[in-house]
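Before relying on records like the one below, remember that each one covers exactly one chain. Contacts with other chains, cofactors or solvent are not represented anywhere in the record.
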Amino acid sequence: MKFQFICYPRCTTCQKAQKWLDEKGVEYEIRHIKDSNPTYEELKKWYHESGLDIKRFFNTSGMLYKEMDLKSKLPAMTDEEKIRLLATDGMLVKRPLLIGDNFILTGFKEKEWEEKLK
């Protein structure tokens, strides 16, 4: 099975996750999140399939998130509005993302990734 690994190459967490995947011999297709931002349709699908809170898809430590003051704006937005916002800029999206046939992982938590890739 080949996974989709969506990352920002200059992000140290993404680099760490990619190194981990390589060491585990996991086959993946890499996608640069800034050059190829996830679409509204993809984000909507991943959000529904993941069962995660939509907030888990936001890069809450990112500069753009802070500049846009999303911490105070997101609570008043619908999930639909949040997904549309995420689709506007890859730098708003939590990374890395690992997309499998039956799971979506946001951010790199080694234990969580280990469990899903068993």
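The first helix runs from residue 12 to 24.
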